Amino acid sequence: MASEWRLATLGDVAVFENRHRIPLSAAQRSVRKGEYPYWGANGPFDFVDDYLFEGPRVLVAEDGNTVVKRDGRGTVHWATGRYWVNNHAHVLSVADGHDLRWLYYVLLGSSVRDLVSGSAQPKLSMGSVKQLRLLVAPPAEQRAIASVLGALDDTIESNERLATLADETSALLNHRVAVIGEAPGVSWTTKPFSDAVDVNPRVRITKGAETPFVAMADVDPFGTRPTRSARRSFSGGAKFDRGDTLMARITGCIEHGKGAFVDFVDEPSAGSTEFVVFRARPPLSPEGVFALSRDARLRAHAIANMTGTSGRQRVDNACWDSLDVALAPASAQRDAAIDAMEQMMALSRGAWLENQTLTATRDALLPKLVSGRIRVPLSDDHEESLGAALAAHSEQAA
To answer: Does pTM surpass 0.70?
Structure first.
């Protein structure tokens, strides 16, 4: 390691802006709806009418069950624009001479397990996290490292925007095929949701067979596909196949829109018992059923028909008998909408697949770059720097 790299603490490098945070209760947020993201330990989960911060900051989860990941790393976010932060995330900028995005990447790869106190309610206090030991690169290399990793993240973000636009377009197109509730025209037919959609369809998986498994933690709020999945020996849970839709059925997850469109596997698969599975029946398409699962009216109906003890309620499957779905009559316009929805979701899936590769590349480069095992050329050409980093990574892997 070159002599200009040095050891320091996070407190030496970062400026903590926690004093500007203000928590808002759900009741307070309900009367302050607006355009500005409201951030907590796990990311933005609401929108309010004002902001506390403007411009990029690094947010680090301070408390809660996700303050430490299974591998010991903390939960770290990159926040930009104008936004509000509650008191469950540390807000960091950098001292003069340091690069904020470099710090973000360093923290992404840093273990905080030994700095966390409490087991029932884990907490990463400001005093503790300030003691986190970092290997600090010179300012020019900080910028170069941030440039390489940032180029990958910028492409990932661009693909996410493309996928989101495609998903939203597909949902809009589905309004020409089916809607929850009252029929928009006299030629439309109405039937119970449970007649239009196969709820928890039969899927054959042999007990003990190794199969893809999607846990509830593997899906993000209102995400279209899992952020990850793993293969497990099947012992039970929700069963599904390609083209199905997953939707959370338990308190705390259904309200946050947890679910997925199953175009990421090509075999019978399993998941958390807390998923309900929907499968299209003609004339509905798989993409259309996924769009219906995201409809606010469907979710409100499901939430209103939850049963069980307070705080741990689940959607009663009988509720799908009392939810109406209106279906458009057969027409060229309806068929064109179904075809276009399939194309939009294929576009979304293509962007998602590319991001799997880009994310794996970034995750492989990150620890080598921030530790100095790969040195980035100090160039203003981002593509040149990225190419050099990838070449060095391939050489080391050979």
So the answer is: yes
The CA dihedral of 285, 205, 275, 236, to the nearest 10 degrees, is 170
- Pair (340, 374) in one structural domain: yes
117 and 46 belong to one structural domain: yes
Burial 334-373 (b: 16+ CB within 10 A, else e): beebbebbbebbebbbebbeebeebeebbeebbebbbebe
- pLDDT tens for 51-90 read 999 999 999 999 988 899 989 999 999 999 999 999 999 9
DSSP helix/strand/coil, 135 = strand
Yes or no: say if 81 and 123 are a contact pair by the CB < 8 Å rule.
Answer: no
Burial of 154 (0-12, 13-18, 19+ CB in 10 A): exposed
The answer on 293 and 245 residing in a single domain is yes
Do 118 and 206 fall within a single domain? no
In a domain, residue 165? The reply is yes
The helix (H) or strand (E) run that includes residue 366 is: helix 332-371
Q: Are 188 and 317 found together in one domain?
A: yes
The answer as to whether 121 is a domain residue is yes
The closest of 245, 283, 206, 255 to 45, measured between CA atoms, is 255
Q: Give per-residue burial for 284-303: e unless 16+ CB within 10 Å, then b.
A: bbbbbbbbbbbbeebbebbe
Same domain, 301 and 192: yes
For residue 78, which phi and psi values (nearest 5 degrees)?
-105, 115
List, for residues 97-120, the tens digit of each pLDDT value: 999 999 999 999 999 999 999 877
Q: What is the CATH number of the domain that holds 367?
A: 1.10.287
Q: Is 305 exposed, middle or buried (0-12, 13-18, 19+ CB in 10 A)?
A: middle
> Which residues constitute the domain of residue 91?
1-136
- Checking if the pLDDT of 310 tops 80, the result is no
SS3 210: strand
In what helix (H) or strand (E) does residue 93 lie, and over which residues does it extend? strand 89-94
d(CA 144, CA 163): 29
Show the DSSP H helices in 175-312 as ranges: 193-196, 286-293, 296-304
Structure letter (DSSP) for residue 74? B
Do 244 and 292 have their domain in common? Answer: yes
Q: In what order do the strands lie in the sheet with 82-85?
A: 43-48, 36-40, 82-85, 53-54
Please name which of 218, 225, 280, 201 lies closest in space to residue 253, comparing C-alpha atoms.
218
| Residue 19 within a domain | yes
